[in-house]
Amino acid sequence: MRTKQNFDKNWKYIIDEVGPLPKTYAKSGIVAGISNAVDGELFEPFAGAGNMLRALQDILPAGDDAKGDVDAADMLMGNLPEKAKSTKNWKNVDLPHDFRVEIGVQDNATNWAQGYIPDGIAYYRKAFKIPKSTLGKRVVLEFDGVMRNASFWYNGCFIGDHYSGYTGFQFDVTELTKYGDDEGDNVILVRCDTTNGSEGWWYEGGGIYRHTWLTIYENVHVDRWGVFVKPTVTGKDAVLDIETTVCNETFEKKNYRVCTTVLDPSGQEIGQAECTGTLPVYGKDTQKSKLAVKDAQLWDCENPYMYKAITEVFEDDRLVDNYETPFGIRSIAYTDEGLLLNGQKTPLYGTCFHQDFVGVGAGIPDAIQNYKIKKIREVGFNAFRSSHNPATLELLDACDHYGVLVINENRIIEATKHRMEDLEELIKSSRNHPCVFAWSMSNEEIFAGSYQALRILDKMIPFAKSLDDSRLFLSAEAFLSGEMAARYGLEIYDIFGMNYAESALNNNQIKNLSENYPDMKFLSTESASWYTTRGIYEDNKERGHCSSYGTRYVMMGGEGGPNAGGTARPWQTWNFYKENPRTGGFFIWTGFDYRGEPTPLKQYQVCSNFGIMDTCGFPKDDCFYYEARMKETPLIHIMPHWTWEKEGEIKTIRLYTNCEEAELFLNGKSLDRKALEEDWIQFEVPYHLGELKAVGYKNGEIIAEDIQKTAGEPAAIRMEADRSSIQGDGMDVSCVKVSVVDKNGIFVPNAENNITFEVTGAGHLLGLGNGDPGCRENDKASSRHAFSGLVLALIQSNEDSGEIRVKASSEGLETCELILKAE
After folding, report:
1. Which residue of 202, 406, 604, 661 is most buried, as measured by CB atoms within 10 A?
2. Is pLDDT above 50 for 68?
3. Residue 284 is part of which domain span?
4. DSSP H helices in 312-450
5. Alpha helices (runs of H) in 49-142, residue ranges in sequence order
């Protein structure tokens, strides 16, 4: 029977080049050194080579400082470098892991697009045992993602390369595996190299940054991603088309039977489907079956119901494999009014963002994947575009759970063998996720529309549709117009995806294309790109900060002109969609700031300024603008804070709200009451110490309020965890918001105190961040300066249960302690 074990624990790594390690050999391809067992691990350096070594010892002359047997071993190993013979200087690590975060920002680094964190080479290695009882089954090592150019050795044998950092893959190592103590320890060695070119133009990380798995199954088994459940919805009912691919890894034909049991969201069985087939020698067979579902519970953004298919494979009535497939039942269609989800018009209020996060870089634990999706969902966004690469599967799990629709994006359009394999992995690995409603083949390809691009797409699109024809196909384009744009939207794809449709970049293309090609369908796949820094209200070039009112800087640091502040303003994006509903919605660039692409002040920043939240997930003022537009829950937000230096100085107050009217009070005195007539309500107010209060009205009744108070000098630290109880599995994480307050407990919005963290008990400090795009402190240090009053601390459990004590201290401030629980 199939077992799938998480393989993330107990690795070692080193940030260094310890090779070169050979990929070809003169003999059997088995060598010693770090690609095999070393340093006291249970091993036989050269399997079955004892007789050869004894013979070589007799015929090879011994050197002055070495015996003949050592010379013989060196000859077989290929004269490995000394660094490749031991792991005594390596560090212990659990995955996922991004080694470049440990390197951190370097002052002499020139790769500004990668956030001034140098590229590098790292090796990862794990020794592990496989029990004797496993012999006769298939042993498979699965990698969800390794950044970037990666090479793999197993028990002294080179087993392959993988080039993309964004797709999963596996190695069947059955014949090379050592079974039981008498054969010894197994060793997997991985070399990760980010120095030979990147896939993207942002920070991508480095290392084994997604999960790894050890999977064991019988010789007859379900293929990798071999079950596809495709629902067709009619009224309240659905029919499931179930496609199952079974593999035979023997030299005999095999008869097999597949039984698929479907469980509803409560775990109750709702039906079974069966099919039979014959497997060729060392081959595959695909069979299809159907199952009717009465009164299906449809997955949507408000009720994200998930079903499960349990696939059992029988060989001559002997159960040989079991395989679980979560899926959802829903229908999608696209009209000139946008997306229809289960027949209902569903505006796509979406965000784009890259996959890094403070404290961990690209090596994001599952809990932080959930944190990010939950954050955008709370604001009111219901969609996400994985830009510009296939999403981590755990992120798709979070979108399934929270009801977030996804455009899953292919990294690059190429028809090379490895890129076609990447495309296949993208679609097969995520085609059962109900959140995924569309595949994007590419983003802003420079050669889009050329003869070369068209020929490549002629191969890629039919291949992709052969794997899944139940979703929409598009690409995100910025530089196509006229007839070629129409060809992309009418002939090649289901929808014409347009980036920055609301901006001068596209010069009213939607109107022109709509008039000339009335059958063409559109989706705004990327919008806004507006530069702001959380808690900052005046530009500060030397610190890499952009005013939240709108900066004077344009891309790459120029000043002034119609594009100052970014490609399009948030309200421009919102109003454009309302005036052009056939664009389907929008996908904001971006939900979060991210490492690299430090726009617009690349000399002074290490992160972008695009996000409506900073790199920690702390909201900027623009975030409240979107929330007020997208949600009906009463909201009013005061911008800016109310802690300034000069009494009497005039401050521009914006109120982002969805209330009909708002009234502003300063120290209890009403300044005016105004109706919401445009995108916000604005006041010009002389600054005076005290309390600024905004009250929102609907039908004359108070329905919302917000208060900003003048803060005194920093006096204490406060901490608040997003989850006070986490799993004691060594992987779960609590995100702790750390605030600086004055002696009265009022938040200090300009505090920059250096805060030191000490974590004891059943957990440890995983990493730190503060959301400052100009900050160059290392995320793996034990201290961090607050930025605009805040720090985010990531606390990870150990493999234990009990209390986790988090202590935060800073010179001159009252210390704070927080107790979390690991269960």
Report:
1. 406
2. no
3. 220-327
4. 366-379, 393-402, 417-430
5. 50-59, 68-77, 99-103
Instruction: Check residue 620 and report its DSSP letter.
Output: P
Does 194 share its domain with 283? no
- Three-state secondary structure readout of 479-523: CCCHHHHHHHHHHHCCCEEEECCCCCCCCCHHHHHHHHCCCCCEE
Question: Quick one: average pLDDT of 310-319?
Answer: 96
Q: Which of 50-59, 105-114, 651-660, 764-773 has the lowest mean pLDDT?
A: 50-59
DSSP-derived pairing of the beta strands 348-353 and 383-386: parallel
Backbone phi, psi, residue 16, to 5° = 180, 160
The Cα–Cα gap between 116 and 348 comes to 35
Alpha-carbon gap, residue 474 to 494, rounded angstroms: 6
**pLDDT tens per residue, range 214-253:** 999 999 999 999 999 999 999 999 999 999 999 999 999 9
Q: Above 80 in pLDDT, residue 703? A: yes
Residue 523 has pLDDT above 50, yes or no: yes
Model-wide pTM > 0.85: yes
Spatial separation of the C-alpha atoms in residues 523 and 531, rounded to whole Å? 23
| Pick from 771, 769, 791: nearest CA to 104 | 769
Distance (Å, whole) CA 469 – CA 465: 5
Q: Evaluate whether residue 592 is within a structural domain.
A: yes
Distance CA 718, CA 747 (A): 9
pLDDT bracket for residue 67 (50, 70, 90): very low
Is residue 540 one of the residues assigned to a domain?
no
Instruction: Characterise 675 by phi-psi region: left (phi > 0), alpha (psi -120 to 50), beta (else).
Output: beta
3-class DSSP assignment, residue 343: coil
Last residue of a domain, one of 709, 736, 764: 709
Element (H, E) at 452: helix 451-467
Tokens of 635: 């909201």
Q: Do both 244 and 120 map to the same domain?
A: no
Instruction: Indicate the Cα dihedral angle 577, 579, 583, 588, nearest 10°.
Output: -10
Report how far Cα 332 is from the mean position of its chain's Cα atoms.
24
The predicted-structure confidence for 250-306, as pLDDT tens digits, reads as follows: 999 999 999 999 999 999 999 999 999 999 999 999 999 999 999 999 999 999 999
Confidence at residue 26, expressed as pLDDT on a 0 to 100 scale: 67
C-alpha to C-alpha distance for 809 and 717, rounded to whole angstroms: 7
Domain assignment present for 542: no
CB 686: neighbour CB atoms within 10 A? 12
Cβ pair 817, 752 in contact under 8 A: no
Nearest Cα to Cα of residue 620 among 646, 639, 606, 604: 639
Edge-to-edge strand list for the sheet holding 701-709:
669-675, 661-666, 691-698, 701-709
Q: What is the spatial distance between Cα 605 and Cα 375, in angstroms, rounded to a whole number?
A: 24
pLDDT for position 507: 81
Q: Say if 747 falls within a structural domain.
A: yes
Quick one: 352 and 469 in the same domain? yes
Element (H, E) at 671: strand 669-675
The yes-or-no verdict on residue 45 having pLDDT over 70 is no
**Confidence bin at 69 (pLDDT 50/70/90):** very low
Q: Tokens 């992120």, residue?
A: 395
Residues 6+ apart with CB under 8 A from 655: 636, 637, 638, 639, 662, 664, 680, 681, 682, 683, 694, 696
Calpha distance 167→171 (Å, rounded)? 14
The last residue of one of the domains, among 657, 679, 709, is: 709
Instruction: Check whether 7 has a pLDDT greater than 50.
Output: yes
CB 127 within 8 A of CB 37: yes
Residues 6 or more apart whose CB falls under 8 angstroms from that of 683 comprise: 652, 653, 655, 664, 671, 672, 674
How many CB atoms are located within 10 Å of the residue 31 CB?
24
What span, in angstroms and rounded, lies between the C-alpha atoms of 168 and 779? 27
